[in-house]
Amino acid sequence: MDDQTQSQPQIEITIDHAPTTDTAQPHCEPLTIIIRRSSSLILTKFHAGHFRISLSLCSQALLWKTLGEPTNDAHAFRRVLSMLPSTAFHLLWSLALFTLLFQSLVYILRCLFRFEMVKNEFFNHVGVNYLFAPSISWLLLLQSSRFIVPSTIYYKIFWCASVVPIVVLDVKIYGQWFTKGPWLLSTMANPASQLSVIGNFVAAGAAAPMGWRECALCMFSLGITHYLVLFVTLYQRLSGSSDLPVMLRPVFFLFIATPSIASLAWESISGNFDVSSKMLFFLSLFLFMSLVCRPALFKRSMRKFNVAWWAYPFPLTVLAVASTKYAQEVRGARTNGLMLLLSLLSVLVSLALLIITALTSHKLASSPVCSNSQS
């Protein structure tokens, strides 16, 4: 009996204290832990390849601005497009600005707290090219703005701040291409390498409205020279150009974007959509048809949504902008029909990706397309 009486309080003590320790444990700083984990996950998963979203939205704002410009063309298509509501443009421009500001802030924090990952991006033959994407996005947003006039000091400051990273990367990458460095073009070239020359073309197109013709010609000459070398290298399909993961094949659409941007840049420098701009535009149309006729190339990359899908809208949008400039120069039902078709296609693709991204944002945050395999 004595043994039984001694064992009962021991059982009661065990039952009384176990719940208190278990129930008190989960309430220890849950909010701070969640914030730390989520912020750390964002900085770890976010890479320069996510700026594809900003590229697409900023180029879409430029398209809407171009379509809304007043024109002397009496064709019905042009009259309808010039009547686009300004509120829609302001909303789109604001969305592009907010997205670009948010992504730029996150990437600055990544540079401060995840510098080793940024360093790995820089030394990756695909990821390094997307370091041009933030500057390209800011320049496109600057060109599409209706609030900042090119003659103002604010436009010039934004242009200089955006072009400095492009020039620094140009000196580093282009210098390695023709020296005995580790980044020889024959081994490092891939479709994403075209972003380097796109940056030069966009900078040239944004400099011309300010009256800085010499700066525009300088940036355009750098871009067109290295574009010719890169284009021939990619056509030869050397080891570097074929070293691209299957899920990143949407980056092949940059073949369309480069001549389209070049045609717009030269139109901005020369003042009209002349023969040179038309030749570049026709090249982009041919490359567009070549890629559209090969859907099997992108079939495997479309099985699962990831951030690489955002490589589609930007080339389609700048092609639509170039077609708009072409329709303004060569007036007629066919050119206006082509402009309407390409513009509608770019808007639908961008809108579809916005909806898909909003519905699957958790998958986008954990996208496997990280710094070691960007496009």
> How much β-strand is present in the residues?
under 5%
Largest sheet features: none
Structural class: mainly alpha
> How many E-type strands?
0
Uncertain spans:
4-9, 11-28, 366-375
Number of alpha- plus pi-helical segments: 18
Radius of gyration: 26 Å
State the separation between the terminal residues, measured CA to CA: 78 Å
Mean model confidence by pLDDT: 84
What percent of residues adopt helix (DSSP H or I)? over 70%
Shape: globular
- H/E order of the elements? HHHHHHHHHHHHHHHHHH
Topology:
Blueprint (H helix, E strand, L loop, with lengths): L1 H23 L5 H16 L6 H16 L8 H6 L4 H28 L1 H8 L10 H12 L8 H25 L7 H4 L5 H14 L5 H23 L3 H4 L11 H17 L4 H18 L3 H4 L13 H17 L3 H27 L1 H5 L10
Describe this entry's structure for a reader.
This protein is mainly α and 375 residues long. Helices cover 71% and strands 0% of the residues. It has helices at 2-24, 30-45, 52-67, 76-81, 86-113, 115-122, 133-144, 153-177, 185-188, 194-207, 213-235, 239-242, 254-270, 275-292, 296-299, 313-329, 333-359, 361-365. Helix 14 (275-292) packs across helix 16 (313-329). The longest helix has 28 residues, at 86-113. The chain is globular and about 60 Å long. The protein starts with a helix and ends in a 10-residue tail after the last helix.
